[in-house]
Design brief:
Strand content: 15-25%
Number of domains: 1
Strand order of the largest sheet: 1-2-3
CATH topology: Sufe protein. Chain: A
Number of helices: 3
Radius of gyration: 16 Å
Number of strands: 3
Distance between the termini: 62 Å
Largest sheet: 3 strands, antiparallel
Order of helices and strands: HEEEHH
């Protein structure tokens, strides 16, 4: 019985880590940069993986104070949209304007940090 419980826990952990890896660009090349923005309920802190061509390859939401039902939902939608577009040049989420601005601002902040100094 102990062996089967351990196996199921290990399997569940591998599944969760696999999902996180897909969303954070695991296996992709590029540097990781922290970005910060101001959302509706406070700071939004992201870790963004940016490829050598400036394309966005992964995003990890590290910290935010947004409401789970509105802002939290918007963050998930924004994350998927930015990854799909490969850039922060997307529309915000209607009804979550400040959350959208904070998230996209954090992505742009990370991109500025990734850009070579002139």
């Amino acid at each position: 019985m102990k062996g089967s419980c351990f196996f199921l826990l290990a399997l569940a952990g591998a599944f969760v880590l696999g999902c996180v890896g897909l969303r954070s660009g695991a296996g992709e090349t590029g540097g990781f940069y922290d970005g910060f923005g101001e959302g509706y309920r406070g700071p939004i802190h992201l870790r963004v993986q940016i490829g050598s061509g400036g394309d966005i390859r992964g995003i990890e939401i590290l910290e935010h104070g947004e409401d789970p039902l509105v802002g939290g939902y918007a963050l998930e939608e924004l994350l998927e949209a930015v990854l799909s577009a490969g850039s922060a040049d997307i529309d915000g989420i209607s009804g979550a304007t400040e959350t959208s601005a904070g998230f996209l601002g954090a992505v742009e902040d990370a991109a500025r940090r990734a850009a070579p100094a002139p």
